[in-house]
Design goal:
Isopropylmalate Dehydrogenase, 2 domains, globular, eleven-stranded mixed sheet
């Protein structure tokens, strides 16, 4: 990052399963990594100060940290609507307020996903032309990675909303990865045009009539095996696909462990195979992909996995830095203005 | 199988990607495995006879094979409705007819899934009280395996249909695996009661009020990691989950290969690790799970993967034998009669 472009992020220091010390440690890691970065740690002031002191940061590094007091914490299992209504002084809410007030360019939280989404939508509002924000994240694939959305924010979606997701995904991939015309596919249960429900067929028509680089349907296995940049689906399907993938990866990891500890011989073989197995474990480690974006908002909001350790949370901060540097919300607005189908009604009715 | 209970199956000899010789080879494998088994191979008579002759089967084995002529073949990509309307003398249709006419107790096909489903539904009809058949298959999980349905027959389902799927899955698991009260879970995007769409919430109410052993929601990862017997979902979600799992498994297999061929050292390590890697490959091999059941029909219909080789197709024949021996359709009807919620209307409206 050039020193001329400082980035200021607000961090929900109290969110996540591992608590304050983890987010503080992640903040220190991120500051060491990015020269122009400044962080506002939001949470109980005395607790945050104590967690900082425990790590004795260098003065130059400490100078790039501000602490913003917030008296409340949103529980990981708290109902989003209740958190939104009752916890106006939560670290999550105050951290988002800083973005609304222009005091930070993005917010990072490992807190309650539903509460983060509901609060961010309420405080920041969606971008003009976007009905609902969506959750997007890169996931590993044969060709490197693919960005998938929505991963769970909207259980049911209209064709128009799915189309907006395609725009948001394309804009983000172009902004962050410099891919000019990202290949967009629609998740479906077959690749033939006749497959899928009405919403999916309508979305396909909208995408075909649009300026986006729509390449057709993709099946569940194709997400990981084909060369695609953006996969679009509703939040129910996306969440099932994402978690199914996590489950299968854990199951295979379990199989590997079982097979390599089956006998004295396989245990010896495991020693020989350790470098390869370690490299494999690293590639399968979901922490490398930590940091999902809540796109479609009037501001940048990054969700870290609740179980993130300091390294993983630092990865989520890295995602926020990148999105600030490439001004993702503005890119979405710009693409939305030109991507809309020329004849949306004819396209969805007759094409 | 005791010699006292002969099992007669009809085999769609022409279905599948690999053609006739593969199904004939599978038939010979299955006959060698099951003493009391008799098979009717359905397809072009002269071609089937030629494929049989090519393998020179022993006379005693050959005596347990009948050939039923069928002049047409349903293409793997043919529209199911067209196949149903126009191909009345297809191997797929004639093989199903044999079950309707009592000349076979079950049918096995590696042909076009949609055509098999549509034709089986048309010819055999659904069981009383079942609106639509579903596709069920065991999939590997941490506890051994879990049966999941629907895997793609019905993209959209009502709560009543999902409830029927739960009954069908429970009856099948009890019949085949002797588990008296199979644990049934509903696939959802969270485990809290407030999660999911209206259909899923209604289904949960029906299941709670039923005699089934309903244990609540399961997320995508839990399918593979938790101890569950039957996972219920609509065919869209089930197909996405199944194929996502296949995609991730293939991706990880690709990673393993890459890591173990990265250098001369890792290649040597791979040699040492070969027994463990082979055992792993065997456990991940989807052929071990070949043979999905189309349940809810007035007859037993087993779908083999289109790409099945002879070993895999023989596994599908094994599934058919087991379902005949345990009379799965009758078990479904019996469970349906007692499992229905006592107060379905109150349960779905007010619970």
């Amino acid at each position: 990052m050039p020193a001329t472009a400082p980035v200021v992020l607000s961090i929900d220091a109290m969110g996540g399963d591992h608590g304050l010390q983890t987010t503080v440690d992640a903040a220190l890691l991120a500051l060491a990594e990015h020269e122009g970065l400044q962080l506002v740690l939001v949470g109980d002031e005395s607790l945050v100060e104590a967690a900082l002191k425990a790590r004795k940061p260098a003065a130059l590094l400490r100078a790039r940290i501000a602490v913003q007091h917030a008296a409340e914490v949103v529980g990981m299992d708290e109902a989003p609507s209740k958190a939104l209504r009752n916890k106006k002084d939560s670290s999550l809410r105050v951290a988002i307020n800083l973005v609304r007030d222009g005091r930070a360019q993005a917010v990072v939280s490992a807190g309650n996903t539903g509460a983060l989404m509901a609060t961010a939508k309420f405080v920041l509002k969606t971008l003009p032309g976007i009905d609902r924000p969506a959750i997007i994240s890169p996931i590993p694939s044969m060709s490197g990675h693919v960005h998938m959305l929505d991963l769970g924010a909207n259980a049911e979606c209209s064709a128009e909303q799915l189309f907006q997701f395609a725009v948001m995904g394309s804009a983000l991939v172009t902004a962050i990865h410099g891919i000019e015309r990202p290949r967009v596919a629609l998740l479906n249960i077959g690749e033939e045009e006749i497959k899928g429900n009405e919403v999916i067929k309508q979305t396909a028509h909208l995408l075909q009539a649009s300026q986006l680089n729509y390449i057709g349907f993709v099946e569940g296995d194709g997400v990981f095996l084909r060369d695609i940049d953006v996969v679009v689906c509703d939040g129910f399907t996306g969440n099932i696909a994402l978690k199914t993938g996590e489950g299968v990866a854990k199951l295979i990891y379990h199989y590997i462990k079982q097979e390599f500890t089956r006998s004295a011989f396989t245990k010896l073989a495991a020693l020989a195979a350790m470098p390869a197995l370690k490299a494999l474990g690293k590639r399968m480690d979901p922490r490398n992909y930590n940091g999902a974006s809540l796109v479609g908002l009037n501001g940048i909001v990054i969700k870290s996995h609740g179980s993130a350790d300091a390294l993983a949370f630092a990865a989520a901060i890295r995602v926020a830095v990148r999105e600030v540097q490439h001004d993702v919300p503005a890119r979405i607005s710009r693409l939305l203005a030109v991507a809309l189908p020329q004849l949306p009604k004819a396209a969805s009715g007759e094409a």
